[in-house]
Each structure stands twice: as C-alpha cells, then as structure tokens.
Amino acid sequence: MNDHAGNPPRAGMDRRRFLTAAGVTAAAATLAVAEGRARAAARPAAAAAAGAFRVPIEDVRHTRTWMAWPDSSSIWGGKLTGVQSDIALIARTIAKYEPVYLCANSAGAARARSLCGPTVTVITTIPVDDCWMRDSGPVFRTDGVGGLDAVGLNFNGWGNKQAHSRDALVAGRIAAHVGVPFTVAGLVGEGGAVEQDGAGTLMATRSSLVNRNRNPGRSQSQIEAALCAAYGATKVIWFDGVVGQDITDDHVDATSRFLAPGKALVQMPLASDNDVYAKDARQQHQILTGATTAGGARMTVEKLQGPDYNKIRSANPDFLASYANYYVCNGAVISGQFGDTRADQAARATLTRLFPGRVVEQLNIDRLGTGGGGIHCVTQQQPVA
C-alpha cells in the first residue's frame, strides 16, 4: 500500500489518514506487540531455514490467493460499502484464474458471500481488522523440492497507526490453516514494503523499514540481515522512499516491481510532476538502472507510465492511481484502470507485452483507491510447493 506513487501534490488527508478514527487503542497496540514478541521468542526465523527456503517471485504457479473482508465502519466510515464492492470485484476476477480464500469476520461473512458469489471461498475462522492482506498475511516460501512454509513480518499497523490486534495474528493463523511451518521474521514490516525476484535480490524503501515506528534502534544493516534471512535473499536494493506522507511510509509495491531476476519495472510520473512521490519514482528508476542483482548481473528496467491525475475519474486527494500495484495470478495480471483513457490503454499494452501468455484484466477500483491502496495491497499469493 502506498499513496501517490509519482503523483501531483494533493491537499487534505494522506493515505488512509482518515482511518485513524478507528484508533490504535493502548490495549490493541499492547496486545499486538506482546503477541509478536511472544511468537518471536518462541520461534525465531533462523538463517538455516532461510538458506533452504526462499520467497519465490510472484508469477510462479499459485495454489490460491488469500484476501480479507473489511467490515469496520469505524475504520472506513461511509466508504465501507463501496470498498466492499471493490474487494468483491477483485476476488471474483482472480477466482476466474485460481482459487480465492477470503477471511471474514462472522458478522460480515453473509455480505461477503453475497457480493463475492460462489466462486470465492469465504472462511470465518481467521478474524481480521481490515482488508490489507499483502501486509498482514503470511509470506510463503518454497524450497524447490516440494516444501512450503510461511513467515510472519510482525505486522504492527504500519507503525501503530491503526488498530491491528486481529491483523497481527492473521499470518500465523493462515499458516496454521494451511498446515505449514510458521516462523516470525527478525524485523517488523509488511509484505507491500518488500519486492523479491525469487533469486536472492530484494528491493525496499528505507522510509518504511528503517523507521523507528517499525524497527527502533535497528541499523539498516541489521534490518537488511533480518530481511534477507526471512526472504532467503542475499541483497537488498534500497530506495530512500518518503517518510510520513502516507500510512505505509511509501511502500515499494506501488512504484517498483520485479518482473524476473535482473529485470524490474518502475511506474513513472508525468514529466511535469515534481512532488515528493514523483521525485521518489525517478530516484527508484535511477537506482535500479545502476544496480546489480545478487548474482552480479546488471538490472534492466522497464517504464510503466502513470496516468494524468487531471484526467482520472476520482478527485479524492488521497487517491492511489498505481498501475504498478498489479497482481500476477495463474494466467492473468489484474491491474487498475482510472479513467485516463490514453494512459489506461497504454498501461494495458505495456503489461500485455511484459507478461506474454497472460490475460490483462483492468478493474475500476476507485473506491479502494480512495483509501490509498490497490489490487496488490489486498492480495497475498500462496505458491505451489
């Protein structure tokens, strides 16, 4: 999740800043931290495990996609109904290509089943606070010989900015539901804060992870070591990012993505855009073009042109119009479209070229976008072992 990946400056509230009305109660925050520490003490993620297991790149074959159903009016207010409709649309679309499991609270399950229809499996055994499964869900790893396990990133509500007592437990509960070993990483973070190429290289923003609201007192090198241990990687390509302008502190997955080992994509702003997010996107592109992989190969970088915010449908100041926040599932790439017709068509053409053999589905997710998130933010893949 991210806000304004290379977008013109907007007045008003930043990425889901209005959600703080939901509050991070002292009890909820204390519970989440205590649970995370207890799990970390019980089962620390070991470097030995990371040597055998690795988080694969997203376009490997999936067993299923995991999602979560938002039902909190204290978080979403009057936006809730529209956001639910967008979540259902995403779930139904992905379900055309692979199984979708949607975690819902008991009180919201009937509406979830009604809107999602029979192709989506709704389960009520894993309670949730919100819909951002990319951040709260487990990060699945494979070992190349039929093994599957999962890592939790100690989700703390993006630095205790939102209530998360249920979401802090989602990763472990999904791993238990699947029946795979579960460990916790040696850092606090979110899945949207990290991109992996499946071959030892990661990219991330310092603003999200080298941040005292997640990892106080930890140096970048310490965080990098923990991140590599969790993902089975050996190198991190770091971007500065943007601190404090959105709830995620600038997640990488709305701007830069791996296409393959040694190949990345960056969503670029318009030439006339010069806000902090536009400068961040240009810096990410510059760094990637000069970077090498864990194996020493030079990176090649594709550009994905972002839309003109003066031509999109939404006038919401916190709207996220990120084509790069797409989700790769079995046989398809699911991305947003925002009403800038020329840019929407160009993004479809670019994604079709970059993902040959996959159907590119573009969805109107404007209600979700007003919350500063996109399709990748609300999905989490479970790869085939």
Automatic annotation (TrEMBL):
Under what name is this protein listed? Answer: Agmatine deiminase family protein
Show the coiled coil region(s).
none
- The question of whether Zinc is a record keyword is answered with no
Keyword Hydrolase belongs to the record: yes
Q: Which UniProt keywords apply?
A: Hydrolase
InterPro entries associated with the record: Peptidyl-Arg-deiminase_porph, TAT_signal
Segments passing through the bilayer: none
> Which PANTHER family does this entry report, sorted A to Z?
AGMATINE DEIMINASE-RELATED
What domain of life? Answer: Bacteria
